[in-house]
Amino acid sequence: MATYAVGDIQGCFDSFRRLLDLCAFDPAHDRLWLVGDLVNRGPRSLETLRYIRGLGDAAVTVLGNHDLYLLMVAAGHGKRGKDDTLAAVLAAPDRDELLGWLRRQRLCHLENEFCMVHAGLLPQWSVVQARALAAEVESALSSDDYETFLSRLWGSEPAAWSDDLAGWPRLRVIVNAMTRMRFCTAAGVMDFRVKGEVAKAPAGYLPWFDAPHRRSADAVMVVGHWSALGLTLRSNLLALDSGCLWGGRLTALRLEDRALFQVDCASGESVPLELPRA
Asked: What are the residues whose beta carbons fall under 8 Å from the beta carbon of 97, sequence distance 6 or more?
């Protein structure tokens, strides 16, 4: 059995299937770990959702910001983006089944030495604490009152964690850290304005994974979300968003031996192994 962690798909279903063929993925024996952002902006979000849902226990998915955006839009909340490509999902005859499945996926997955989350973890959180906080959000999303939760999700405040937070602000911070964060201060104050390369970090901010004394540093973080960062592999960080949506590559990493598999999303060709950014 092999476990393949796959970067952000964002509806690029054809590239995703080519990548699985390259890996010789067998759902009867192997597992997929999907770092979130299954949907949106790419052309085939509906097919992506149907395929991954059909894999059952062979796929472990965490929610990304675009997945949550789909759930918000479907519930009539949030602001529609002019570049979203969700019309086919929203009009599908199996829409309710797909959305019901999506909102019951995890926000954070913890297994052995690995912790998978879409964006990152605040420096104050250990992976055990993060898993417990994610469960609070997962409970709200899977509840009968999930639409109320989605109606309160939009926004970037509060920008920092406090153990005293409660209610919707508490859940919003958890979601924003795990699905939207790129830069934060050493004290864990998040910035959501800058989306580019590390060199563009605002003054006083740094990539979340470089925060000093980060309590999750003893785990191997498996993440996506940050296409401008590019494929970045460290002993305790596997950042797998290699920009498929933007004509880059879709990446899979076999967790057992860190073997790397990639397809070029512009040409559809497999690409040779190369040294990732340190």
From this structure: 53
Nearest C-alpha neighbor of 215 from the set 120, 134, 137, 138: 120
- β partners of residue 61: 34
What long-range pairs does 247-253 form, CB within 8 A, spacing at least 24? 250/6, 250/7, 250/9, 250/12, 250/15, 250/16, 250/19, 251/6, 251/7, 251/19, 252/4, 252/5, 252/6, 252/7, 252/19, 252/20, 252/22, 252/23, 253/4, 253/5
Q: Does residue 274 surpass a pLDDT of 70?
A: no
What single letter denotes the amino acid at residue 105? Q
pLDDT at site 272: 60
Calculate the alpha carbon distances from 8 to 84, 139, 227 in Å: 15, 24, 9
C-alpha 68/C-alpha 92 separation (Å) is 18
Residue with tokens 């910035």: 191
Q: What is the mean pLDDT of the chain?
A: 95
Q: How distant, in Å, are the alpha carbons of 30, 78, 100, 118, 129 from that of 168? A: 38, 15, 21, 20, 18
Nearest residue to 114 (alpha-carbon basis) of 220, 211, 194? 220
| Per-residue pLDDT tens over the stretch 159-171 | 999 999 999 999 9
At 82 the pLDDT is: 80
What tokens does 138 get?
């997962």
Query: pLDDT by residue (tens digit) across 16-61?
Result: 999 999 999 999 999 999 999 999 999 999 999 999 999 999 999 9
Residue with tokens 């990446």: 251
Whether pLDDT at 273 is above 70: no
Please report the DSSP string for 178-229 in residue order: HHT--EE-TT--EE-S--S-GGGPPTT-EEGGG-TT-TTTTSEEEE---TTT
* AA letter at 190: M
